């Protein structure tokens, strides 16, 4: 699973696997749902501002407190890089689909957030960590376009021709996406732990793992609270997309960006560790919460239907 190994992840993962996830989404998503999702501006603003403004700022404030502890300083810098990352191009969509939430909104925010991240993430890294380098925006943008937008459009075009067959057979789109994502995680871990330069003390690593799970739980709860307020105007399905898209961070974009921005850094492998922990942790935590969130969404939808039903006139 390492780069250059038998599985050739630099081709099979970087291009084929991510493209397969979005072709799968394009094939399974009803076109009218994707069109209506584009108009949900309030939801998109919430997700992008939380992900690219609130998240990195909150982490920076938190790290000011942690800087006085004996935790490895490069792992702490790595935590800041996690905060600067854009939303993922796969995991948030898969988990939203598994719950039955607003998948169209999740896809739009994943793709849109990734494109924003090409410009904003390097600027955030420069702002919070002070690294400087030239970032090849054109190559990252073209790779994103080819692996996210093009497969999604092709999936939508193919869907038009086999729509009846898809509705009749109902292929297991969720299971396919989950298998592809598992392959992405596997190859990432292979690549990381094959690096002989990683030198971690156990105390710092255990504390970082604990902090990462705590951050995820806290931010998921925070987004849930904000999106379920009485005046929020978000549906339960919207809330599911918001919770996953706002708190998940991209590994497939993150690692290449770190390699570009911190090119030549002696401690690049250590800086990368928190993101490498965060990505599988967000999928593990999200997967464990799927049944709970699903039951909440279904019960909330039923309650909303009951309140909207016209009351029968009382006979005198």
Automatic annotation (TrEMBL):
Membrane-spanning ranges: 12-29, 41-62, 74-95, 107-128, 140-161, 173-194, 206-227, 239-261, 267-290
Keyword entries, A-Z: Cell membrane, Endoplasmic reticulum, Golgi apparatus, Ion transport, Membrane, Sodium, Sodium transport, Symport, Transmembrane, Transmembrane helix, Transport
Biological-process GO terms, alphabetical: sodium ion transport
Record has Protease as a keyword: no
Protein localization: Cell membrane; Endoplasmic reticulum membrane; Golgi apparatus membrane
Entry GO CC: endoplasmic reticulum membrane; Golgi membrane; plasma membrane
GO-annotated molecular function: symporter activity
Source organism, top-level taxon: Eukaryota
Membrane topology: Multi-pass membrane protein
Entries under InterPro entries matching the protein: Na+/solute_symporter_sf, Put_Na-Bile_cotransptr
Protein's UniProt keywords contain Zinc-finger: no
Record family assignment: Belongs to the bile acid:sodium symporter (BASS) (TC 2.A.28) family.
Described purpose of this protein according to its UniProt entry: Does not show transport activity towards bile acids or steroid sulfates.
Name this polypeptide is given: Sodium/bile acid cotransporter
Organism of provenance: Geospiza fortis (Medium ground-finch)
């Amino acid at each position: 699973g390492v780069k250059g190994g038998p599985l050739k992840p630099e081709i099979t993962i970087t291009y084929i696997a991510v493209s397969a996830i979005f072709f799968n989404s394009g094939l399974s998503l009803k076109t009218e749902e994707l069109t209506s999702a584009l108009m949900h501006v309030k939801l998109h603003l919430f997700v992008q501002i939380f992900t690219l403004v609130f998240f990195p700022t909150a982490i920076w404030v938190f790290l000011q407190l942690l800087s006085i502890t004996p935790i490895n300083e490069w792992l702490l810098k790595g935590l800041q890089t996690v905060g600067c990352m854009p939303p993922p191009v796969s995991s948030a969509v898969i988990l939203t689909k598994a719950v039955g939430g607003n998948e169209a909104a999740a896809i739009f925010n994943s793709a849109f957030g990734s494109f924003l991240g090409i410009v904003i993430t390097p600027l955030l890294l420069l702002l919070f960590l002070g690294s400087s380098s030239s970032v090849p925006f054109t190559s990252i943008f073209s790779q994103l376009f080819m692996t996210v937008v093009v497969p999604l459009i092709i999936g939508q075009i193919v869907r038009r021709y086999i729509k009846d067959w898809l509705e009749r057979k109902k292929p297991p789109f969720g299971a396919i996406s989950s298998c592809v994502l598992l392959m992405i995680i596997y190859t990432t871990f292979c690549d990381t732990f094959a690096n002989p330069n990683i030198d971690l003390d156990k105390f710092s690593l255990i504390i970082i793992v604990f902090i990462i799970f705590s951050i995820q739980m806290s931010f998921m709860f925070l987004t849930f609270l904000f999106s379920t307020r009485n005046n929020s105007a978000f549906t339960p399905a919207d809330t599911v997309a918001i919770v996953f898209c706002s708190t998940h961070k991209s590994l497939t974009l993150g690692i290449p960006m770190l390699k570009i921005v911190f090119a030549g850094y002696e401690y690049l492998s250590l800086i990368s560790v928190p993101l490498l922990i965060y990505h599988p942790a967000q999928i593990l935590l999200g997967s464990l919460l799927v049944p709970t969130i699903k039951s909440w969404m279904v019960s909330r939808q039923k309650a909303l239907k009951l309140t909207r039903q016209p009351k029968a006139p009382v006979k005198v």
